[in-house]
């Protein structure tokens, strides 16, 4: 595969006026039957198929996507990657993902532009300070890099921040994960898609799954816009539409789906070289390689499937951003958008078998699943291939909502929902 993208091939294509480039993945018609069907061509679905092929030798797989690859939350998020969660179970899962991020461009032979520029979570009051300090200590116990910064150190790390926060959001300190940062979200989808295709996985776009073929409590296929497709095993990885899919398969999920929105500004010269998040402000900000400020808000208060957030939520976020970063007051916003996030009551994901035999589900990442993409795909592939959860995925089983072994990460989720 490397040879296809060598310097020689780049030069040849340049001389051909960019004609005859080989497509990064095929667009085949679906076969009648596959060993595994993955529903959802976002980052998590693509990563699942990739590791199924790469680590478990399962290549007779189809990814069925109702729209286009990465057109869901994968292409709509603000790309923040970190692993500074509170509980041991989460630290294991998100740190596994972060380690995979650190080698992902090499593994995929595709530049996902992973930039470990550091993620700061701000404290604006005594309670925030204590919550962040507790989390930094927990991170240390789990071997996750994490530091506590006082106000002066925050200013040194991000000089454009106004520590007074105009009185409303004074900055008293922050946690900092230096290995955290950002990645190029589209490239993540494209890199995994190319890797899947090279190993023989069929990627079927513009093909909604409308139902399941279930016999004697066991899934045997899916009903799609392109007809029925038989499958030995099926994985559901559809983020904001997880409860819709579960309903079609005849079981319920403790998931609520809500819009979460983000915006980008006009491009400016580099001014902020780290990621800043504030739970209290309901805002997070970084600067893209193009120079745009990438800003996100909290979720809307109501459930819904419209891929846009409410205006007042964006207004509140931007007002607070301007208080923390007065130099941005006259910036113009270029565009905004929303995605539908699937939130669980404990703000942790579900990676699990389901009540239907051979049907597996990966969902509930809510406002924070981009960072988990490689790890989620890796442990979900194991779960599907073995028919039993990967050890890191086991605590995230669906039955925790029956047993009560919840993994409450509302604080570490750091985005209001
Ligand atoms: P998706 O990318 O949504 O993929 C699911 C796919 O399933 C979609 O492509 C959809 O079209 C498809 N699908 C749905 N129904 C069907 C069907 N019936 N048949 C076939 N296909 C179907 N996370 C972070 O870690 N850091 C962040 O900074 C961050 N910021 C965010 C900002 C915003 C504004 C939003 C909306 C989310 C943010 N997130 C962030 C969350 C993150 O984007 C998601 O958790 C993650 O991308 C989910 O990936 P996925 O592959 O599961 O879902
Ligand atoms: O989980 O880090 C996160 C996040 C940042 C923005 C949205 N979610």
Structural class: alpha/beta
Oligomer: single chain
- The CATH class of the largest domain is Alpha Beta
| Mean pLDDT reading | 95
Number of structural domains? 2
Specify the overall morphology. Answer: globular
Q: In CATH terms, what is the fold-level topology of the largest domain? A: FAD/NAD(P)-binding domain
Small ligands present: flavin-adenine dinucleotide, pyrrole-2-carboxylate
Beta fraction of the residues? 15-25%
Provide a descriptive summary of the structure in words.
It is a single chain. This protein has 417 residues and is an alpha/beta fold. The protein folds into two domains: 27-78 and 186-255 and 346-403, FAD/NAD(P)-binding domain (3-Layer(bba) Sandwich); 116-180 and 257-343, D-Amino Acid Oxidase, Chain A, domain 2, CATH 3.30.9.10. Helices cover 30% and strands 24% of the residues. It is built from twelve helices and 18 strands. The protein has helices at residues 7-15, 43-56, 88-102, 104-108, 126-141, 151-157, 185-198, 242-249, 311-324, 373-386, 400-403, 410-413, and strands spanning 33-39, 61-64, 80-81, 119-123, 147-150, 173-177, 181-182, 202-204, 209-215, 218-224, 227-236, 256-265, 275-278, 283-287, 293-299, 333-343, 350-353, 359-363. Strands 1, 2, 8, 9, 10, 11, 17 and 18 form an eight-stranded mixed beta sheet that branches. It has an eight-stranded mixed beta sheet with strand order 5-6-4-13-14-15-12-16. The chain has a two-stranded antiparallel sheet with strand order 3-7. A hairpin with a 5-residue loop joins β14 (283-287) and β15. The longest helix is centred in the N-terminal third of the chain and has 16 residues, at 126-141. The two termini are 43 Å apart. The mean pLDDT is 95. It binds flavin-adenine dinucleotide and pyrrole-2-carboxylate (PYC). Flavin-adenine dinucleotide binds at residues 39-45, 64-67, 71-74, 76-80, 208-209, 237-239, 241, 260-262, 296, 339, 341, 365, 367-371.
């Amino acid at each position: 595969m490397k040879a296809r993208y060598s310097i020689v091939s780049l030069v040849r294509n340049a001389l051909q006026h960019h004609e005859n480039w080989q497509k990064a993945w095929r667009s085949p018609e679906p076969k009648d039957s596959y060993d595994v069907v993955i529903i959802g061509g976002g980052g998590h679905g693509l990563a699942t198929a990739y590791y199924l092929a790469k680590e478990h030798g399962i290549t007779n797989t189809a990814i069925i996507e109702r729209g286009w690859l990465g057109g869901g939350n994968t292409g709509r998020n603000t790309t923040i990657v970190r692993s500074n969660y509170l509980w041991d179970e989460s630290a294991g899962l998100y740190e596994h993902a972060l380690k995979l991020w650190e080698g992902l461009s090499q593994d995929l032979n595709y530049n996902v532009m992973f930039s470990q520029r550091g993620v700061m979570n701000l404290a604006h009051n005594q309670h925030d300070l204590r919550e962040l300090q507790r989390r930094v200590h927990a991170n240390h116990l789990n071997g996750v890099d994490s530091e506590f910064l006082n106000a002066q150190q925050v200013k040194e790390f991000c000089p454009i921040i106004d520590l007074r926060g105009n009185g409303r959001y004074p900055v008293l300190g922050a946690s900092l994960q230096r290995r955290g940062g950002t990645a190029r979200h589209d490239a993540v989808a494209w890199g995994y898609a190319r890797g899947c295709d090279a190993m023989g996985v069929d990627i079927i776009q513009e093909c909604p799954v409308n139902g399941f073929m279930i016999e004697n409590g066991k899934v045997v296929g899916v009903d799609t816009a392109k007809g029925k497709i038989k499958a030995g095993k099926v994985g559901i990885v559809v983020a904001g539409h997880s409860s819709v899919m579960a309903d079609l398969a005849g079981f319920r999920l403790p998931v609520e789906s809500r819009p979460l929105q983000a915006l980008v500004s006009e491009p400016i010269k580099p001014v902020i070289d780290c990621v800043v998040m504030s739970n209290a402000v309901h805002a997070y900000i970084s600067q893209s390689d193009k120079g745009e400020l990438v800003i996100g808000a909290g979720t809307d208060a109501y459930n819904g499937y419209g891929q846009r957030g409410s205006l007042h939520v964006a207004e509140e976020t931007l007002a607070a951003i301007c208080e923390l970063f007065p130099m941005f007051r006259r910036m113009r916003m270029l565009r905004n958008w929303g995605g539908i996030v699937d939130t669980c009551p404990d703000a942790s994901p579900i990676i699990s078998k389901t009540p239907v035999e051979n049907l597996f589900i990966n969902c509930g990442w809510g406002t924070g699943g981009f960072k988990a993409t490689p790890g989620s795909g890796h442990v979900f592939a194991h779960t599907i291939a073995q028919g039993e959860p990967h050890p890191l995925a086991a605590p995230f089983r669906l039955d925790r909502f029956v047993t009560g072994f919840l993994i409450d990460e509302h604080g570490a989720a750091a985005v209001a929902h």
